[in-house]
Amino acid sequence: MYTKTFLAAAVALTALLAAPAAAAPAAAPATVTGTAARTTATALGACGPGQLCLWPKADFKGRALTHELASVDIESCTALPAGASAQALANRTGRPVTTYQSAECAETGEFETYPGRGTWVPQTPYKVRAFKIWER
Fold first, then answer.
1. Among residues of the chain, what percentage have pLDDT more than 70?
2. Are 77 and 106 in contact (CB under 8 A)?
3. Of 5, 9, 55, 59, which is least packed with CB atoms within 10 Å of its CB?
């Protein structure tokens, strides 16, 4: 499942990066780069370096919950606030992150690990209710 999700995100990112560049005039390469960067960030959801961002709705919709290493215990279960869940995510922590359907990080429900090198997932296969950030 991870491979399909990662491949789909990579294909979507490639298409997003190519489309604005092809549509822009050749005379303004600086503008093309800026437009491509803004279009990509908007389409994929803004998430800064070193952050784990979780959106409540698919396609990076709604107000994202943002977590950083400074505020999370490594290799410990971090539950989302009561009643909250996520259906899209971006992992820019530089470390693997496992998301869980269970708010207690129980492996009896669904769970999946995403690499930390810049992963955007527009639709998780289940509602994420907790996560763990791993050492590496």
1. 68
2. no
3. 59
